[in-house]
Amino acid sequence: IEPKLSGDFATLMEWADGVRRMKVRANAETPLDAETARKFGAEGIGLCRTEHMFFDPERIGAVRHMIMAETEEGRRDALSRLLPFQRKDFLELFRIMAGLPVTIRLLDPPLHEFLPHKESEIEEVAESLGADVALMKRRVADLSEANPMLGHRGCRLGVTYPEIYEMQVRAIFEAAVQTGKETGAAPVPEIMIPLVMTKRELEITRAQVDKVAQEVFAESGYHIVYQVGTMIELPRAALTADTIAESADFFSFGTNDLTQTVFGLSRDDAGKFLPFYVEKGILPKDPFVSIDIEGVGALVRIAAEKGRKAKPDLKLGICGEHGGDPASIHFCGSVGLDYVSCSPYRVPVARLAAAQAALATGGGDRTA
Ligand code: PEP
Ligand code: MG
């Protein structure tokens, strides 16, 4: 990996790096993303989304089996088949990131995305579970939701089916141990819990993480330092951030979902009438691209202040799309975030914007 850009561009980036206060990480989930991120100067992974890993054609059968099984035993059977895949996913990322922080977000798909829909898929799952096709169809109907983005997703999955998060956490720690044993430099995984709305959800999932971590350390005779934090992507989480901070080592603002829930605007259908609203001046700009300072931004500021009041060393970052938007990065600097995380290709822009943000706020020291 060539971790530096070349020529005048590289010089400009070095100047920016000398000035900026916020770190710049990348959203990356594949080895190619991670390599690209490093090439553009990312200082870690700020968001590794794990859902796409489950859609791999080699795994989707086991994933459907996991979702459709009606017993914990059935789910565990499917999860044991997924564990080696997940371990390999994280091992590759840890090796490429070579000791830089890697934030892994536990599973956060709307559950329905994993359901079998075609007749042939339902028959396949029925056969692998030894179940009746009619029963499987009923289960698909039971698990389907009218509003999946506000439904059974995020940590709600980990709370209702703890064995799913247990598998992922085991894969993370087994991969971290293996990297540590091979290289002598163990990664410091940051395990991130999605869609938290109450402190209790975080307490429950955090306890699961700690339990599995201790099991892996006992089995391997190797200890890994790690952190557990939460996405702040629901208004309630932002408003109760002081309480939530008591159970979190870090917050990462998920401004995609936060924008969706603050505006009551579907992020998946935003293209339908939003451009008209922007054209007519009803909204000054697309809030999914640039942070809406008065609404979403106010919640980010409240959560940052409350979180830090409760826990002064709380690490704060952002991993929504806004983390790669220069105007939003300025805002992030003004509320004291420690890092922004964006698409690998936006990392250079973010490095520059972070430097401009530091200059605008009279900063310039590089201590974060
Ligand atoms: C977010 O909601 O801002 C976020 C980063 O998570 P996702 O886009 O995966 O929901
Ligand atoms: Mg989200």
From TrEMBL:
Q: Which domain of life is it from?
A: Bacteria
The positions annotated for binding Mg(2+) are: 233, 257
What sections of the sequence does the record tag as coiled-coil? none
Query: Which residue intervals define the domain PEP-utilising enzyme C-terminal in the entry?
Result: 6-357
Kindly list the positions annotated as binding substrate: 49, 105, 233, 254-257
**Active-site positions on this chain:** 319
- Which family is this sequence assigned to? Belongs to the PEP-utilizing enzyme family.
Q: Could you tell me what this protein does?
A: Catalyzes the reversible phosphorylation of pyruvate and phosphate.
Protein name as catalogued: Pyruvate, phosphate dikinase
